[in-house]
Design a protein that fits this description.
With about 120 residues, this protein is α/β, with parallel strands linked by helices. The chain has helices spanning about 25-35, 60-65, 80-90, 100-105, 105-115; strands spanning about 15-20, 40, 50-55, 70-75, 95.
Length: about 120
């Protein structure tokens, strides 16, 4: 489905995850649950293994256009149905409500990372 992207990093199984529009509180939660992965907010990074985007804080089409060969996970509040639709329309690989991101963090993220291996 994606180009032959290999999992990056010095440790086996460590992925580089680019965070787009993700606030510091949520980044901290993700880092606590997935300490084996490298989280970054810098676009200067080599191609990431996964992009996680806060749909309410970014332009979904811009993110999808900038990372066409990388799985993209978008999340937002359950009341932001327009944002969920925009992310689906932009071609995000998975779009979930914020509560599901924290209820199933490892399952969702590991599943998307595994899709590029």
């Amino acid at each position: 489905m994606y180009d032959a992207v290999t999992v990056l990093g010095s440790a086996a199984g460590m992925a580089t995850i680019l965070l787009c529009g993700v606030d510091l509180f949520i980044r901290g939660k993700l880092e606590a649950v997935l300490p084996e992965h490298r989280f970054t907010t810098s676009d200067a990074v080599d191609t990431p293994d996964l992009v996680i985007a806060d749909i309410a804080r970014i332009d979904a089409n811009d993110v999808a256009d900038n990372y066409p060969d990388v799985p993209i996970l978008g999340y937002t509040n359950h009341t932001d149905t327009a944002g969920l639709r925009r992310a689906h329309a932009a071609g995000f690989d998975q779009v979930i409500v914020k509560s599901a991101l924290f209820e199933r963090t490892r399952e969702v993220i590991e599943g998307l990372i595994a899709s590029v291996e």
